[in-house]
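Lecture 7 notes: from sequence to structure.

We start with a single chain of 315 residues. Read the sequence below before looking at the structure.
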Amino acid sequence: MLSDKEIRDFYENELKGVLLRFEKYRKISLLSKRLSKPLFWSVILLFLIGGVIDESVYIIIGAVLFVILFALTTWGLLKNDTYTSMYKADVVKKLLQFLAPSWKYIPNKHISKKHYNNCVILPKCNLFKGEDYVHGVIGDTEFEFSEVTAIEEGRDANNKKTEKTLYSGLFFRAEFSKPFNGETVVVPDKMEKKLGYVVRSLQKNKKNDLEIAFMENANFEREFIVRTSDQVEARYLLTPQIMEAIVNYKLKYKNEISIVFAKSNLYLLVPDCDFFEPNIRVKGGMTFDDVRQIVSIIEMNKYIVKEFNQGALVY
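Now the structure, written as tokens:
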């Protein structure tokens, strides 16, 4: 895995200059966002005052401010779209090339709904969207990941359309050359709070099939629960090195991680993250810590795949 020094050298020498080229777009996006809310409430207040005391001057001022608000919001959205597009084309692409020049990055694509629905711990959805698709090869193993949002659409008692977000975050999938003997699932110990829908799906669909496996790593046991249909295979898949890498990432970045080994696929889920969007509230749109976190989750995925590929030769 890359050291903090290697990541910092890349950030300072290769990435920082690119980030600063887009500063004017970031500042415009931030200004628009900061001004829109007070302008909106000013318009509402002026209309209310004008209506109560029957003074048209307040309504006229409110109408003028509404036009300004509309123009500012439209302008800000256009500039933000431009900023985001340039950011992904130059910054994200450069970051991924640093990790592996051969990987393909397509900002407006996502992993297929079929692969999401094949992940045994996630509830099925009828609306699926996403972005920031990455495809590549680690050793002999193909992988792909993207940010995804899975939604359940329905109707309430009044026949009004409803939407419930089932999962939103990073979805990583690697496909190996041979299938696993069974299914093994790694979920955070406190997943009910963070990933309530996921854990309910697991308990409903897999409770009778998957047994709890106790691993020989005290730190890992405190943070995660392992369920499996094959106790021997679970211990083969979750090597001491892999368990250590997973625990270190979770403790360092406070992100929940779930991992699934099923059929011939490895799935890794990081909910509630938006790694490839610029943060308009910080200079440059991305800090060194942001870069380090992105690199760390991708490097951990690479490490798990490499560990399995090496072990597969003797398993």
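The chain has two domains: 4-98, 101-277. Keep this in mind for problem set 3.
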